[in-house]
Amino acid sequence: MALNVFDHDEYRPPVWKSYLYQLQQEAPHPRRLTCTCEVDKRPKYYGREYHGMISREEADQLLSVAEGSYLIRESQRQPGTYTLALRFGNQTRNFRLYHDGKHFVGEKRFESIHDLVTDGLITLYIETKAAEYIAKMTINPIYEHIGYTTLNKEPTLKKHLPMCQEVPDGQVSQGEAGDKERKVGSTHHFAHHEKEDRKE
Q: What range(s) does the SH2 domain occupy (predicted)?
């Protein structure tokens, strides 16, 4: 379906498009929490945000300083696996972190941890502020033709609608087991795998 092109003075984006863009701008900004001491066996693809094998409680205490703050730690229950701990909504969210040349917690890959965290904070913020709005919006097919501008200049809404999943530490994630998923919207979602570490 063709989309009519208007002069900048005439074109007015749909209200929902402006609203989602506004939410992206309002989302918390990443704040890297650096480790001040040398950490043994730090993976070469992580920087000073890597804190080694610290507990969930230690990470939570460190991250309580600011919304959007983050660090990477090695799991105590599963050595050799890594967790991205991220402060959002006055609580610490924990994500199993992977690297295959790029960083990821779901299907979408990122060149840097900073980019991953930026995208994650936008996703979590939109999920929190606009879940009902997005659910209603998916009934209207206009989003299929217009989309909205993301950080990556992608023309669709698809990759920024969140799907969160909590995975207890020590269990496999969504791709490996059929755990329940919480979806926002009917057909579009951005996969984020969140896990709640047990007391370590």
A: 49-117
The amino acid sitting at 71 is L
8 A C-beta contact, residue 95 and residue 83: yes
Q: Classify domain 15-195 at the CATH class level.
A: alpha beta
What phi and psi values does residue 188 have, to the nearest 5 degrees? -125, 135
Whole-angstrom Cα distance, residue 56 to residue 158?
A: 32
Helices 113-137 and 15-26 sit at what angle, rounded to 10 degrees?
A: 150
Residues 6+ apart with CB under 8 A from 82: 43, 46, 72, 73, 74, 75, 96, 97, 99
Q: pLDDT (tens digit, 9 = 90+) per residue, 63-74?
A: 999 999 999 999
Contacts of 177 (CB under 8 A, 6+ apart): 171
* 138 SS3 class: coil
Cα 9 from Cα 152, distance rounded (Å): 25
Largest separation between any pair of C-alpha atoms in the chain: 59
Answering whether pTM is above 0.70, one says no
Pairing mode of beta strands 162-166, 182-183? antiparallel
Instruction: Give the pLDDT confidence of 117-157 residue by residue, as tens digits.
Output: 999 999 999 888 877 676 776 665 544 444 444 444 444 44
